Amino acid sequence: MLPIAQCHLLELESHVDGRGSLTEIFRSEWPGTFRPLQWNYVRSERNVLRGVHVHVRHHDYLVLVEGRMQLYLHDVRRDSETAERTCDVDLVGDRLRGVVIPPGVAHGFYFSEPSVLIYSVSEYWNLDDELGCRWDSPGLHMRIGVASPLLSPRDEKAGSFADMVRAYASHRARVPVAAETA
Known about the structure:
It is built from 2 helices and 12 strands. It has about 180 residues and is mainly beta. The protein has a single domain (about 10-175), classed as Jelly Rolls, CATH 2.60.120.10. The strands form 3 sheets. It has a 5-stranded antiparallel sheet with strand order 1-9-6-11-4, with no helix packed on it. Strands 8-7-10-5-12 form a 5-stranded antiparallel sheet. The longest helix has 14 residues, at about 160-175.
């Protein structure tokens, strides 16, 4: 369990023999999991930062299968028992772990080396469910250890952490949240 409510870190067991290995990367019975509607494959180069984003409606489930990634989480849910709590998780491809991220938990991914990430979402992509801020925005306190990560144009132009939190609260008041996880 991670120190943020409804976020889960799942240790995945690999079954290894002389031919290689088999690892179950998702089971709907695991803590916090949900019915995935879409799976995505992401390849990132070294020094890439994706995010910071927060979703109003959808859950994410991710597994880093190759490389190294620092996952940053920050709870922006005002009604959460862990509101404003942050944590960092180092994920490495040779130690497979799954992470469940519920709506309202902002997240950013920093890849320190070429990496492959597989993730699923509980809802199809919708621009209204994609709120973001700059990773170096005051108040966020994201520490990735580099001064100039590679960013997407969207992440480069993102606004402040305070603006993202206000937008999340406003959207949350208007948009029905998806069903809770199993």
